[in-house]
Amino acid sequence: xxxxxxxxxxxxxxxxxxxxxxxxxxxxxxxxxxxxxxxxxxxxxxxxxxxxxxxxxxxxxxxxxxxxxxxxxxxxxxxxxxxxxxxxxxxxxxxxxxxxxxxxxxxxxxxxxxxxxxxxxxxxxxxxxxxxxxxxxxxxxxxxxxxxxxxxxxxxxxxxxxxxxxxxxxxxxxxxxxxxxxxxxxxxxxxxxxxxxxxxxxxxxxxxxxxxxxxxxxxxxxxxxxxxxxxxxxxxxxxxxxxxxxxxxx
Amino acid sequence: xxxxxxxxxxxxxxxxxxxxxxxxxxxxxxxxxxxxxxxxxxxxxxxxxxxxxxxxxxxxxxxxxxxxxxxxxxxxxxxxxxxxxxxxxxxxxxxxxxxxxxxxxxxxxxxxxxxxxxxxxxxxxxxxxxxxxxxxxxxxxxxxxxxxxxxxxxxxxxxxxxxxxxxxxxxxxxxxxxxxxxxxxxxxxxxxxxxxxxxxxxxxxxxxxxxxxxxxxxxxxxxxxxx
Amino acid sequence: xxxxxxxxxxxxxxxxxxxxxxxxxxxxxxxxxxxxxxxxxxxxxxxxxxxxxxxxxxxxxxxxxxxxxxxxxxxxxxxxxxxxxxxxxxxxxxxxxxxxxxxxxxxxxxxxxxxxxxxxxxxxxxxxxxxxxxxxxxxxxxxxxxxxxxxxxxxxxxxxxxxxxxxxxxxxxxxxxxxxxxxxxxxxxxxxxxxxxxxxxxxxxxxxxxxxxxxxxxxxxxxxxxxxxxxxxxxxxxxxxxxxxxxxxxxxxxxxxxxxxxxxxxxxxxxxxxxxxxxxxxx
Amino acid sequence: xxxxxxxxxxxxxxxxxxxxxxxxxxxxxxxxxxxxxxxxxxxxxxxxxxxxxxxxxxxxxxxxxxxxxxxxxxxxxxxxxxxxxxxxxxxxxxxxxxxxxxxxxxxxxxxxxxxxxxxxxxxxxxxxxxxxxxxxxxxxxxxxxxxxxxxxxxxxxxxxxxxxxxxxxxxxxxxxxxxxxxxxxxxxxxxxxxxxxxxxxxxxxxxxxxxxxxxxxxxxxxxxxxxxxxxxxxxxxxxxxxxxxxxxxxxxxxxxxxxxxxxxxxxxxxxxxxxxxxxxxxxxxxxxxxxxxxxxxxxxxxxxxxxxxxxxxxxxxxxxxxxxxxxxxxxxxxxxxxxxxxxxxxxxxxxxx
Lengths: 250, 227, 283, 353
Known about the structure:
The complex is a heterotetramer.
Chain A: H1 10-13, E1 23-27, E2 34-38, E3 57-58, E4 63-66, E5 71-73, E6 77-80, E7 83-86, E8 90-97, E9 102-108, E10 123-131, E11 135-143, E12 146-157, E13 180-188, E14 193-196, E15 203-206, E16 216-219, E17 222-224, E18 231-233, H2 242-247
Parallel strand pairs in A: 5-9, 12-14
Antiparallel strand pairs in A: 1-2, 3-8, 4-7, 6-7, 8-9, 10-11, 10-13, 11-12, 13-14, 13-15, 16-17, 17-18
Chain B: H1 9-12, H2 18-22, E1 48-52, E2 60-66, E3 69-80, E4 92-99, H3 107-119, E5 128-138, H4 143-157, E6 167-174, E7 178-180, H5 184-189, H6 195-200, E8 202-210, E9 215-225
Helix pairs in contact in B: 3-4
Chain D: H1 8-19, E1 36-39, E2 47-53, E3 56-67, E4 78-85, H2 99-113, E5 125-127, E6 131-143, H3 148-161, E7 165-166, E8 168-174, E9 177-182, E10 189-190, E11 199-206, E12 209-210, H4 216-220, E13 224-230, E14 236-243, E15 247-248, H5 249-284, H6 299-305, H7 331-340, H8 346-350
Parallel strand pairs in D: 4-6
Antiparallel strand pairs in D: 1-2, 2-3, 3-6, 5-6, 7-10, 8-9, 11-12, 11-13, 13-14
Keywords (chain A): Exosome
Main location (chain A): nucleus
Protein name (chain A): Exosome complex component N-terminal domain-containing protein
């Protein structure tokens, strides 16, 4: 909220004060009182003055770079009073995005991946625990490709299953208990995360048939048990099924 | 005072209780060598040993030794909030400290909880709770300081986003000098309830600081300090 | 203590020093027989000084109500958090009788309330039992259909217990409910009475109770004169029961007088404020 | 402390206000609000105080008991604090809710009173190793406005100041064990010397500035606070950081000086109040109330005054007997005394005429 007072009423504020350029009146965000601030020369801003260049080992709390509209703190780093600091132990990695004129400074860590909590929009793999008419309750085990230490609770409502005929879809005919499904987190609800499987690439990834065998999808709404040929209707995720990859060469 | 009572209460009332006889209070500075009782200089710190990643399946763990004070810290990954605790936009932290036989003053836990909440970037894991378990194996002075360092290292080892690594230290002063990293014997020797200590202004400070941002995240002081 | 002199403090005749608790030992039994005077100098049908006031804490945040009731040295403070949407945990319990208003009661007495200090905090048996008793009394007084499904939190704290604590709590709760605007069918007024040496006495103090006198606590609905609660401990001869009961009823009438005057006083204050505003607008 | 949640705009309004030294209720940053202190609220306690500061309302009562000192501190009396958050303050204190808050307050109070300078503990000991006064300070929080810790600390100091400690007139030796004998005269008591007792000043940090005596709104938009115990001479007895903020080292030193200055002012006002309460009590009782503080007899003086003889005490409690240090209590003497007061007559016990 660093709005700077335009120059014409500067004379109002600084009658008696000697007008030395290089300073401008800016309303200080914390104080709410107009304060004289040095004008940062915009030219050098584009260049990234970095204390720690790429790939160096960094401890939390170490200064990485000066933050402004061209530089941002990525994952594993945080920004405080226009300075980017490291938040975890690891190696610095700087990615440049020329089209948005943005470079992201982040700290990566090999070995155990840092904890990522499911945020809105992240794709999540979970297993269905129980189903009622209105919703399916499931436990989130992986966020994108990072495995969670402890499962988080999520629910998929009936309306969020498919986009096409939204109210025709039913929980019974799309998910079974024990299926592993891919879903996208739509909201952080009160107790559980609210998820949806409306896109084609989301839905049941693998399901076990009543006979206990891994079921193979026949088309995008039914799956079949290879042994007992029992057919069960599921909302299948349009992803390359692992079994098909296996059975390809034969 | 010649009470004729027979059962040996007379010896007690001469001012020496059983505790005094067992570990006599030695003066802080050894007069001959001019150093402390255990041979350290005034501003010398006991040898410190630090080890991280000692527990496999936990998210982060550390073991810290300040001289003979030994503390183990284990951090369990951000877990899902159970139904009882109501919704919180940012993460939560639960701290529990145990000692091997003996009682932990409950002020330690509240202080540690405040310090950790100031250190960890909580809004990186909303609706989750981070469990920090601290076990004090042996407390021979500045146990709280050892706990602070252990917790800071365990968080860093577990890759929990923190503002800065937390380091703890204790300082004891009896009006005349400042003693770094006091041992349990020295803490007992400085008996705060004696009158002359208080006129001069003795006390114990425990400080948890964030080195690169030179801020303090934990501060307790007991005793009396003159301006 | 809580109420300024003007606001609703209605004192009945007081004839003994403030710290009467330290009962002087010289007034022995014969004094009671001959001059009809109780150990602390009151006549048998004379109540202790009553001070009560409403709106003690400025509970403007959340539409609550509070009241302070003091009789002699027994002091009780009650606050009511007005009918609000029930919390999730209590709601499931109340789902069965959806038409009723769920009442969440908590009684706690301060550690220093009785002469010997008790260290256990609130959740001991006695306070649980007292909460249930007070809850059952107030349940049949609330007008349930006006605010179904909503929840009322009533908290009562006994600051000093000097005999007649149960009666003081009931009066304090009634005043607090009225202050909070909880719909009530009728005033619930309570008073305690006893019988000693053949003389029925009203409103006994802790010193008298400690000498083994029976204590009858009577709570009635003021208009319809129905008895809401009647509890009595220690031994009381049956033939004297009717005398004590009549005395208690009479005590309740006098107590009702005091409570009603407090309410008028409080709402007349509101009345005066409203009139002042009206006059200012007119001029 | 009980929190109320404000919208961001309200918080910003308060923070900017504090930065310009104007607070929501018009006070400057270092102004303290006026408080009402009412004494003798609980008649059956040795000393009781009710403090009301705008929205914070606390009742504190001290009761003095006879107890035995700890093993490792044989010559010192004992001082115990108990904080009880009543649900009157806010619904969240119902049942187990208030324990977390009362523990922190208890911890801070004991740590700031633990230095020997605060209260003269040695005078609280009657017989070393055996008997000492145990002063129980019970704190009941009726309403939880802002600045709760300051109000409680002030209340404790005031309450300890006016606490009437019964005087030990003599020692009775039965079977060689010295047992103290207390005075029966209600108006013979002594006061504790509270001039050195600390007062806690909490400095919540709102934005970049410290604020004294914060209201509940200011506390909810401050991340943490410093609780500093200050004595009347300006010494610091204890510092505690509560809450989740971290302080620059430079700002710590400045805040401690600030707290010392404010603490001295607070102490002065409080001591005047204590003296005024005591003088009121003086008019109530006989005018020749002993000036200043009676120095309690130390153990040696008590023992010297009594010529020691093994004395057998009757097993029936002496209800009406006068106190003779060397009296011999025989059974017939007591029964005759009780008959005099028709203790055994029927009408006392069964309650019929």
